Amino acid sequence: MIQFRRSYHSAYLISILSGLLVLVSCSRDGENGTVHDIDGNIYMTVRIGDQVWMAENLRTTRLRDNTPINEVTDRLEWYNASEPAYCWYDNDSEGKTKGYGVLYNYYTINTEKLCPEGWRIPADEDFQILIEKFDREADFTRHEISTIAGGYLKTDDAIKLQSTSAVTIGKNVFSALTGGCRSFEGDFSQFGSIGYFAGAKNKSLSIRVGTSSAYYNNSVSSYVGVSVRCIKQ
């Protein structure tokens, strides 16, 4: 009888573990998991409501059809660019800015081929849904759309992305990184203070590290370099 009980409990335990393995293996790609780009870079992802976002800044150097994106370090060349281009902040791919991803001009962003297959650049309504998840009083008719949503979206440093899965709804869920930008004249600025996240049709969402504010930019020059967070289609 004792041996029977042990066998029964063992079989029961195996059944439970098998069920858990099935649940884990059936998790859909991109939902509190990972996604990879054409360069093989792997990104944490997070579900926020009905949306699934990358929880890290994009850093691919190729479009998803395998077309290389020009890396432009020279200021004058960046200013004169009329085709897809990218750069690292301060042209430093190995230093402190590496964890903040790549800055892309809007010639790259508007190709509609920058995000991995099944993902895309967020549209106006995607940003609105995201912001309203944390602030129902957000107003997209203003430049400063929210005085509190930014606090739920930002993170203080890139290290958090390496040490957490960023899967729990709450503060830092989006893990916004303040990667700064590159101006149309080729100058770098605002690293560590503002994160600019590209939207479709030359628009962007910006998060300030010093406050909890979130800003929406309705018109951005095609020459300006900003960070990218893709959203799942």
Name the descriptors:
4-stranded antiparallel beta sheet, disordered N terminus, 3-stranded antiparallel beta sheet, globular, alpha+beta, 233 residues
Order of helices and strands: HEEEEHEEHEHEHHEEEEEE
From the N-terminal CA to the C-terminal CA, the straight-line distance is 56 Å
What best-fitting shape do the alpha-carbon axes yield? globular
Main beta sheet: 4 strands, antiparallel
Instruction: State mean pLDDT (0 to 100 scale).
Output: 83
- Strand fraction: 15-25%
Stretches where pLDDT is under 50 for at least 5 consecutive residues are: 1-31, 157-171
Classify the helix fraction into a percent range. Answer: 10-25%
Give the number of domains. 1
Question: What's the helix and strand layout?
Answer:
Elements: H1 2-25, E1 34-36, E2 42-48, E3 51-54, E4 70-71, H2 75-80, E5 85-87, E6 103-104, H3 106-109, E7 119-120, H4 124-134, E8 144-146, H5 149-153, H6 159-163, E9 181-182, E10 188-189, E11 194-199, E12 203-208, E13 214-217, E14 231-232
Parallel strand pairs: 4-5
Antiparallel strand pairs: 1-2, 2-3, 5-6, 7-14, 8-13, 9-10, 11-12, 12-13
Describe the fold and architecture.
The chain is of the alpha+beta class. The chain has one domain (28-232). It is 24% helix and 21% strand. The chain is built from six helices and 14 strands. It has helices at residues 2-25, 75-80, 106-109, 124-134, 149-153, 159-163, and strands at 34-36, 42-48, 51-54, 70-71, 85-87, 103-104, 119-120, 144-146, 181-182, 188-189, 194-199, 203-208, 214-217, 231-232. β12 and β13 form a beta hairpin. It is globular. It starts with a helix and ends with a strand. The relative contact order is 0.18. Mean pLDDT is 83; it is low at 1-31 and 157-171.
